[in-house]
Amino acid sequence: MEQLINWYETETNTMHPVERGALLHAKFEGIHPFIDGNGRTSRLLLNLELMKSGYPPVVIKVENRLSYYNALDRTHTTEMYNDFINLVATEVETSLDLYLSAIAPRPSKNSPS
């Protein structure tokens, strides 16, 4: 955990928030410091990083869970993070689209169609 904190404090300040969050999530998950709750904690760390930079939190949907686990497994076995970062970036885009659609102006009942 000390190495993770040192890495975070020294190497992440120039990273894009999505990359920083994804890497923090993957590295924490690789350490697996707790008996239970490591996945939940690592997803909270990911979302904290995103929200600190103004991004909405992401939720890994059930239909994407297998891709999420596969990308995370590849990250841990190969130490190559691109697949996982790309998966997180896609989830961020999905969250942004959802938020933007919620605030999009809707035609009023009185406006011509």
Radius of gyration: 17 Å
What's the mean pLDDT score?
Answer: 92
**Low-confidence residue ranges:** none
Helix fraction bin = 55-70%
The helix-strand sequence is: HHHHH
Task: Describe the sheet with the most strands.
Answer: none
What is the global morphology?
A: globular
Oligomer designation? single chain
The helix-and-strand class reads mainly alpha
Give the N-terminus to C-terminus distance in angstroms: 59 Å
What is the β-strand count? Answer: 0
Q: Work out the strand percent.
A: under 5%
Count of DSSP-assigned helices: 5
Structure characterization notes:
The protein has 113 residues and is mainly α. Helices cover 67% and strands 0% of the residues. It has helices at residues 2-11, 17-31, 38-52, 65-78, 82-103. Helix 2 (17-31) runs antiparallel to helix 3 (38-52) and helix 2 packs across helix 5 (82-103).
Outline the fold blueprint:
Blueprint: H1 2-11, H2 17-31, H3 38-52, H4 65-78, H5 82-103
Helix pairs in contact: 2-3, 2-5, 4-5
